[in-house]
Amino acid sequence: MNLRIAFLHVIALLLAMPVLAEERVDYLKDIKPILTERCVACHGALKQKGGLRLDTAARAIKGGTAGAAIVPGNVDASLLLKRITTTDEAIRMPPEGPPLQAGQIELLRRWVEQKAEAPADERAERDYRDHWAFKPLVRPDLPKVARAEWNVHPIDAFVGVEHESHGLTPRPEASRTVLLRRVTLDLIGLPPTPEELHDFLNDASPNAYEKVVDRLLSNPHYGERWGRHWMDVWRYSDWAGWTDGKQIRDSQPHIWRWRDWIIESLNADKPYDQMLTEMLAADELYPADAGALRATGFLARNYKMLSRETWMQDTVNHTTQAFLGLTIGCARCHDHMYDAISQDEFYRLRAIFEPHQVRLDRVPTEADTTKDGLARVYDADLAVVTYPFRKGDDRDPDKDRPLTPGVLKLIGEIPYDVKPIPLPAEAYYPALQPHFQQQVLAASELELKQAEAESQKLATDLATAMKTAATVLDAATADAARVRVTLAERIAAAAKLRVESVKARIAADQAKYANPIPANANDLAIAAGNAERQATFAQAEIEVIKLELKRVAAILALKGDDPKLKQAVTDAEKALADATQKRDAANKACTEQTPNYTAVGPSYPKESSGRRAALARWITDRRNPLTARVAANQIWLRHFGQPLVPTVLDFGQNGQPPTHPKLLDWLAIELMEPATSGVKPWSMKHLHRLVVTSRTYRMASTPDEKNLAADPDNRWIWRVPSRRMEAELVRDGILYVAGKLDLSFGGPDIDYALGLTVNRRSLYFRHAQEKQMEFLKMFDCAAVTECYQRKESIVPQQALALANSELTLVQARIIARKLHETTANDNAAFVNAAFERVLSRTATSEELQVSAGFLNQQQQTLIATADRLKQNTGAVNETAKPSADPVLRSRENLIHVLLNHNDFVTIR
Amino acid sequence: MSDQDSNCGCGPVSRRSFLADTGMGFTGLVLGAMSFRDGIARAESTPAGPQSGPHLPQRAKSVIWIFLCGGVSHVESFDIKTELTKYGGKSIEETPYKEFLDEKRINKNLVGVNPGHYQRKQLMALNTGFKKYGECGLEVGDWFQNIGECADDLAVVRSLWTCHNDHGTQLTWHTGRHPREGSFPTIGSWATYGLGAINQNLPDYVVLGVPTGDCCGGEWTHGAGYLGPQYAGVRLNVGAANPLPFVTPPNGQILPEEQAGEFSLLGKLNTLSGIEYPDDKSLRARIKSYELAFGMQSAVPEVLSLQTETAETQNLYGMDQATTKPFGQLCLSARRLVERGVRFVQIFHGGGGGGAWDAHGDIKNNHTNLSAQVDKPIAGLLKDLKRRGLLDETLVVWGTEFGRTPAAQGTGRDHHPQGFCSWLAGGGIKGGVTHGATDELGFFATENPHYVTDIHATVLHQLGLDPQALEVPGRRRLDIDIGKPIREIIA
């Protein structure tokens, strides 16, 4: 290129530039995204601040109360341009976030200059009421599928029709072996045993699979498996805080009772709506039912010592997320950006929970609530007022605008009626509960027994001393001993009076809280008062005697002018005088004859606000469009490892729509109003049965090249996705295949540090912030603060945990030894038995060959290292030391490999 | 229903390709254990997604993040205030700075004030001397004279503020959020989330030392919040027999050749069972993870074998002195980790409870003793990185949760969130500069004030990461969560 041509190029470029600069702005490509991102939240379908909408060009031109936002062709007259470019921050738009970028402003300016052209058919932002999730639930018609076998089961019809419209070929049914392992792990969280495998393979009846499903759904381990799922969603957490338990920072001690309630409720197929109701308001609706009260652990779990604010926020946020699939946390500071939820509504929801607090009630087996108890909620303050916080700042409540409790309007017109609920006496005065009374009485009787024994012992000691010829007691020692005996007798007498006082107070309580109140209630109260006053007087007298002794001792201790000792006498005299005064007062009180006595236990408000019970009714109302949809999605997610609504915690307008909206609605309806006769509403087992008996659920998880190309993410469910077992299943499975899993149910949380040595199921170990089993953490156990969907990471630390933990090493040896006994020297038989035991399937011929080859080769390796083999057998676990016999050792190795096999941790 | 479902619609080609893809596993095992910078491994095992960076020119490959728990006095370390000595013993009310006691101004940025800590009035003279260091003439307190020698490599930020006045700010320093707001991704997890690993035989994000106590964030200060546990820091116990859980079999219960046989069989069996699932990414990742685990068994103990360093190097970190040895070991381990490609190394000093540096009483003794433990090792780290040419690609950050009050609390100083300092070195950061300032008493961050997340933004910027590109759907962050890079200190 010569210089001249180069020069011409430059000229051409220069000439082209202004043309480029005035290139036509494309409304849809350049302008609409800016308006959508920065303006439409306040000027759109959701809100129309200043009467202005900017979701279409036509509406921008039409303008709001201040006039046209855009005047086509006239930049200076366009209010929108003025407001986005002004330097006055008070009026500059948008009010939140950084100002628009220079480039964006320039585009808008040019677009206005170019007459603000936009497509004539531009559609306005949709009204939120048209959002799929807020529409009423109506049972959808079943679609017709060309593949006849996909028309039999409703779920298959909804799934099959999508196969057809996306040109996908559904995968064939999985092998019986794969299916049995899938459904068994899915429903009870444990792999099938070789016996179960053989039974199923040998069952030629047409309903062999359905029989398996029935067996599993009635197996109580179902409650544990699905209990852990719901514990994720409902944020189960044991208490967190200082390790010694002296300071509880999060959740509550003994909250495992809520976990047991979940498991029991699921096993009983308690309706989902009933479970929600009990979790939100058992204390209002079933106040005398200790079993149901456990459910309120759902709320008690939010307790946060450091901040009542966070406690309240978590309660509001997670109640709406777990039950309604709405994320409303942002409405704490400002109106919701995507959904029609105002800031006030956030605080109205908060007001529902504002009065509630947590408490520990006594349980029949333990009087000391630090050792055991029932963590539950109750309305503590019925007069409390909720104020919205300006910009969400809890230091800045808007005291001019107290807010009453209320719910979300966007869900539609479902009544929220709050009626205060009177509580039975044993709820607001737990000391009426028989076990409470027995415990108080037993404690005072124990005290009496000890005092009597002490008094008896001192008297016997003295008598023995006096009688023994060898011992000559001097007068002073004998006097002192006599004083001690007398004092002990007095103490025992006072203890006896206290027992009487407890009995009298309990009798008075029974009368006072009875309905109707018996005629002798006042007499009983006076009797209780008298008994208590006498006991008080007796105790006051003992104090006087004790202090008199102290005074005498102080006088005897005087030495010369020691000021300290003199002071001690003065102090003792003063203390004695005070005690004497108290005793005299107590004595005088004994003549009172009033019905006043000290309550046996704490009292709480006699009424509950009814706000949470009303919320439960509103959430579980048949017309609520979200509750059943959210539940159905959660259940589907756990059967398939893949949800129908990808954003499991956001069904709002910022979430993603369901892949199969009609299927979701059908499942939701079937949950609430089952079409099958004899099935009760809101039965979760019904939904499980429907899902796992579908053809969809029974498909293989193997790939298909054409399907993969068309739908790589399996969005249209042409196969059942493979997934990794949850953390609990990995640990439980290792122990279970070795026959070492302790299958007992329920009970207090077990120290998480014992996870590799105590063989209970994983869900029974303490699980709280900073109190989690290391092994489970590696396999992505539930985050305690929020876990609507488990993660499935694959990291080398998992491989290390499986390869090097004593858990797998020891269980491998236990399994190997068992199988070794029955397979003698037959390597092939051992390999087959090993595959069936660990992987719940038979080995393929290739696997058999490779594994048998391994056994031979490994034996050679081990023989070559025979000396060191012996050295290593001194290791820790005596019950399952590594074998020094190369044959057995190689078999231990094979089992260890199978426990590390991808198929062991994978559900196909 | 057939028992073995061989009805796999993906002909022999895919089968063979799967075997070819994973077959290398058996031999790759040993190779993987030996080759540290396994770039191919990363490309293969990492699906498209989170590890999308770098998005910008990368100035640093690794970060060493040093955190001193409890709150180091800023006015006696890297933001010397001689006015305190001038007015020492006087009430602030008697000085020209009496308007500093304006409650409104003190509480302006504070959320949830803990009334146990507040601004004391009686000023306290400096408890240590100070000197100017380097060509830049940076003033550094005598407690940190070794670090002072590295002044020309440091960029000191003197205008930080944080929004609580209790030790929950230890978490704030790492996530921008206080414990009462919950667990959020830490800066270390963002870095590894954005960039992934260089060395697959070691964790991407390593934590050394005793982390913060339960009260102050605990595990959250090296966690990953919603990013998920695979991005959380992995604690390595320097000097312990088992530096990482399960990194070696218990008590030699399995011989090396025995284990090699097992891993080889495992690779074969996994590959065989994968024939039916040629597209299974998880299976490939699991096969890979076993190769990596095999490598980690030797790589983790190897990286912590500090005895292989020369005596001269060990001494540079103060490992020849009892006082400096524990922290020196951590600093030297940090160098060895970044040298082998670990992305983010977080070193804690004085963790547990409120933190060792929390000098409410006798600050003179407290800071004298604690600085003696860390000053030489940190300086040794900077010098060692520099002479090995590693400082160019390694960003070192020194920080603490807040400063300490200019006024006395008896013989100590109280918590001071309104203004404090930190420094950065290496990784494309200017050396010998100070940025921002507090007022004459070190009370308020007055010039170019920065919330703690601006440090995060600076770190991510140097790593070549754009925080916006890392956003997780449904986890909208506020501008203040992300922060802004401190451009003035970037070279």
Question: Which terms would index this structure?
Answer:
heterodimer, A: 908 residues, mainly alpha, two-stranded antiparallel ribbon, 52% helix, 3% strand, B: alpha/beta, 9-stranded mixed sheet, 14 helices, 33% helix
Overall form of chain A: globular
Give the overall average pLDDT of chain A.
91
Mean pLDDT of chain B: 87
User: How many strands of chain A?
Assistant: 8
- Pairing-aware structural class of the strands and helices of chain A? mainly alpha
Rg of chain B, Å, rounded: 25 Å
Residue runs with pLDDT of under 50 for 5 or more positions of chain A: 13-21
Determine the structural class of chain B based on helices, strands and strand pairing. Answer: alpha/beta
Low-confidence stretches of chain B: 1-49
Largest sheet of chain B: 9 strands, mixed
Helical stretch tally of chain B: 14
Largest interface: A-B, 100 and 76 residues
Q: Give Rg of chain A in angstroms.
A: 38 Å
Taken as a percent bin, the fraction of beta residues of chain B is 5-15%
Please write the string of helix (H) and strand (E) elements of chain B: HHEHHEEHEHHEEHHHHEHEEEEEEEEHH
* C-alpha end-to-end distance of chain B: 68 Å
Spatial order of the strands forming the largest sheet of chain A: 1-2
Question: How many strand segments of chain B?
Answer: 15
Query: What helical percentage do the residues of chain B reach?
Result: 25-40%
Please tell me what the overall shape of chain B is.
globular
Give an overview of the whole structure.
The complex is a heterodimer of chains A (908) and B (491). With 908 residues, chain A is mainly alpha-helical. In chain A, strand 1 and strand 2 form a beta hairpin. Chain A is 52% helix and 3% strand. A two-stranded antiparallel sheet of chain A has the order 1-2. In chain A, strands 3-4 form a two-stranded antiparallel sheet. A two-stranded antiparallel ribbon of chain A has the order 5-6. With 491 residues, chain B is of the alpha/beta class. In chain B, a hairpin with a 6-residue loop joins strand 13 and strand 14. Chain B is 33% helix and 14% strand. At the A-B interface, helix 7, strand 1, helix 27, strand 7 and helix 29 of A face helix 8 and helix 9 of B.
